[in-house]
Amino acid sequence: MLTNILSFFRDNDKLLLHSLLYTTTITLSALVISRYFKSRSWSKLKASPFYKPMEGKVCIITGANSGIGYETAKELAKLKATVVLGCRSMIRGQEALEKLKKEVQDGQIVLMELNLASFDSIKNFAKNVMKQYPKIHVLINNAGVSVPIKEKLTTKEGYEVHFGINHVGHFLLTNLLIERIQKSSTDMEQTKVVIVGSSLMDRGTIDFDNLNGEKGFVQKGHSNPAYCNSKLMNYYFGAELYLKYADKGVDVCVVCPGWCYTNLFRHADIKFYQKVMIFPIAMMYMRSANQGAQSVVHCAISPNQTKHFPPIFRDFAPYIPKHEYNDEVSKKLWDVTAKLTSIQ
Asked: What Gene3D superfamilies does the record point to (predicted)?
């Protein structure tokens, strides 16, 4: 029996090889074609009626030295906005600044140091921005971290790194700048706060007895639970900020840029065989950083015409997350974070 099977494969090896090549070619072609049509919905920005010059507008972007933040800065600089890059590493920030100035030669781009893991750094950044710019038209809270929870990293103030940077740091920065942002709005045009979120918020939980991860985290698949929790907090922060300032001239939105190829998850422990298994899915759904930035820029330059609430968007349209909004959680998270940051 075994001899017959081996003989069959020897006699038909060319046929099997041709069949394998044919199947592989057809599969890859189908993936490429499907991706092409799907990706068209990720890059609609320049067809938007709001894609117009923003000369004289000051836009602040956190974590702007790479990935979505860098691409967002580039798009806004192309629109003639004054773009402030808030970067933790001044070395990498300077490299990004030099690269941006080559790509957008007439762009108004400024680099400032901002470490969202330090309250002192956040306060110094806000002070310097307000000293230099009488008006702030757009704040984009883009910076984020995702590191293995086993490393137990914390911020300068002792907060779990995802909670401390992705949520608390941006909460403090926004509240330090919000009065200036509010005063920069006009009857004709609202100013903007854009919070870069993620659909991974649907895997997150908010446990007020474990915000700082003292009790550890429950692993959900391959997702980083602390990161997912912080993205859910971004969602609630954006919703509460919207309720507080939408009628005061500040338009607030949370935007999911989609699954993008950036260095955000560079620390993730992903095995080679897992990368191979995920490749076909990535071919269909993974966007470039520039494609991910399109929705962010769209939210930054266009009004929330639909007054969609909670104000979360994806692919240039309102997005309904799986997580059901809870008004009590939203208010409590704001109050708890305000106390942690000494914001009145």
From this structure: NAD(P)-binding Rossmann-like Domain
